[in-house]
Structures are given as C-alpha cells and as structure tokens.
Amino acid sequence: MNWDDTTDAEAAAERLVGAVADGEDQAVEAALRPKDLGEFIGQEKVREQLDLVLRAARARGATADHVLLSGAPGLGKTTLSMIIAAEMEAPIRITSGPAIQHAGDLAAILSSLQEGEVLFLDEIHRMSRPAEEMLYMAMEDFRVDVVVGKGPGATAIPLELPPFTLVGATTRAGLLPPPLRDRFGFTAHMEFYGPAELERVIHRSAGLLDVEIDPTGAAEIAGRSRGTPRIANRLLRRVRDYAQVKADGLITQEIAEAALAVYEVDARGLDRLDRGVLEALLKLFGGGPVGLSTLAVAVGEERETVEEVAEPFLVREGLLARTPRGRVATPAAWAHLGLTPPRSQSSGNGQQDLFGA
C-alpha cells in the first residue's frame, strides 16, 4: 500500500496508458460499447466460437453455458458479457469478486436471479473461498445450501435456483482453482490487439464521438495504444482535446504526435513511469541486474507499482527481462532511449545472454 493509500489498480487507472477503467472511462465506454458480436472488433476466434455457443443455445431454447473470459484489462471482457446478454435477450447483473467476501453475499445475488439471466462476475479470482465453494454447486446443479444457525445446531436449507448463465472475467486465470475452471462450458482468452485492429476501433469511436480523424492520425494513436482498445479510446479523447484547442479539430499524424508529446506518451506507448524505470535501470545501474525493491526506490515508487503497473508492458515489449538475479535491460531498451550499452559485460552481471557476450 502506498503512503497515500492509493492501490495499484487506482495507480494504473490514473495513467493515460493504464488499462484499468476509471469513472470517466466507464461513462465513455458505455457510449462506445458495441451492442452485438457483429459490431465487436477484433478477437475473431473468440467471436466465432462464442457465436456458435450462443446460436446453439438459442436454437435449443436453453440457457447459454457458463463462460469464462480471461485476459489483460481493457480488451473487452465486460463488453462481451453485455453482448452475451443482448444476444440471449436476457437481463444482466454485474458484480465483482472483491464485492463478494462472504457466502451470504453470493447467496443473496443468486437467489434474486431471474430465469436465463446473465450474471457477470468481474475479477472472479478475487472472490472469497467460502463464496467460491458455494458457486460450484450453483453453476453445476443450480442449487445452493443456505446454512442457518451456528455450531452443532446449524442447518443447511437447499435453495433451488433458476437456470442462469455465469460470465466470469479474470486477468489472472492461473489463480482460479481447477474445480471452478472446469465448471465453465466455454473458456476464451482475450489477446492484445494488432495496430490494424486498433485503427478500426479508433475510426469507429471517432465516428461515435463526432471526431474528424484521418488515417495517419488513427495509425499514430493505434501505435501508442499498447494493444488495448480502452487505451486507444482514451488517447483518442486526449488528442481530440488538443486538436480542438490547438488546431482546427482534424486529427492528423502531426497533431497526434504533438498531443501525445504533451501527455508524455512516446512513439512506443511508454509513459513517464515506464521511461523512469528504464532510465533508472540503464543510467543508474548499467542495465542491471538490479533488485526490484532497489529499482522501485530509484524511481520513487512502491515495489508493487513497478511490478504490477510498469513491468508487464516493458517485459511484453522486450525492453526488460526478469532474471533470478534481478531486472535486466535488453538491447532494445538501450536503443529505445538512444543510449549505448556497455561494450563488454563482466561474467557476473547476468547480461551475457542478452548482449551476446
């Protein structure tokens, strides 16, 4: 926990390139969110498979199988849950794992579901263990046992539930116990988007927001969006603001570059925190290896913030490597910051493989 009680999720939400949604993002996403699978851009395999699942369920007149969606924040898991409800012409109930800390919390939600209703459970991996065990029976048998009383006199009262569809979303599928994963009839992993897909997302959002953008401007924003539609939409809104104030409202490549320079998002999508981590690793520690705690102190951030907020993207971009001896910069990191790596590395610094020594 940081000294100002800011969680890692909150820190990520405050970043322009953070994939966690804040209040503004949630409001805008509601307006930009696709309403059916035909409008949903990207994730072709997931869309094709999910379409088959939903069409088959409708043909049988049955409730759709339970669905598990995994992947990084901002890739469309919540949107797909709403599309599932729309395709099945069913209402949707939205909650999250952290909000269910007791079995009674889950029992109250389940007992109020209507037949065929979709229950979207975000961050399902953070649900409490007692609630998780209750969910097993609810998913498989559409029944829960409500315990009344305590101690030897406690009595379990069976409560029948109407058929429903659970859509679970998680950013850390590995934390889900096998008995829970096995109860989902369909599981899908959401992949990061390619530049061409993000350009389509940006053009669609620009049309809905009544923003004029040319192909070069969309390409520039897409290239800095870290493979995430939520970030692409956020950058689009900030570039729109710049274009309205500093230009004639049209977003071109030059306008996008100038706007994102103001917001300190570089050509690769790195922001101040990302570059701060790389600069400390390269300039203060010669490229590493260096311990995570030491690196966090050097950039003035908490250890958890560096590990959970900055590192995943740096590792995915091949700019930083995690080794048993600490964090190590790659040749790509030196090149990205325009620095020259050491010509030779000693045998004990852990960088021989990265630099070919």
Put the structure in a nutshell.
With 357 residues, the chain is an alpha/beta fold. The protein has helices spanning 8-14, 23-32, 44-60, 77-87, 103-111, 129-141, 178-181, 195-208, 215-223, 229-246, 253-262, 272-284, 292-299, 303-316, 331-336, 352-355, and strands at residues 67-70, 92-96, 118-122, 143-148, 155-160, 165-170, 186-189, 320-323, 326-329.
Task: Describe the structure using short key phrases.
357 residues; alpha/beta; Rossmann fold; Arc Repressor Mutant, subunit A; 3 domains; 5-stranded parallel sheet; two-stranded antiparallel sheet; 9 strands; 47% helix; disordered N terminus; disordered C terminus
List the helices and strands and how they pair.
Elements: H1 8-14, H2 23-32, H3 44-60, E1 67-70, H4 77-87, E2 92-96, H5 103-111, E3 118-122, H6 129-141, E4 143-148, E5 155-160, E6 165-170, H7 178-181, E7 186-189, H8 195-208, H9 215-223, H10 229-246, H11 253-262, H12 272-284, H13 292-299, H14 303-316, E8 320-323, E9 326-329, H15 331-336, H16 352-355
Helix pairs in contact: 1-14, 5-6, 8-9, 8-10, 9-11, 10-11, 12-13, 13-14
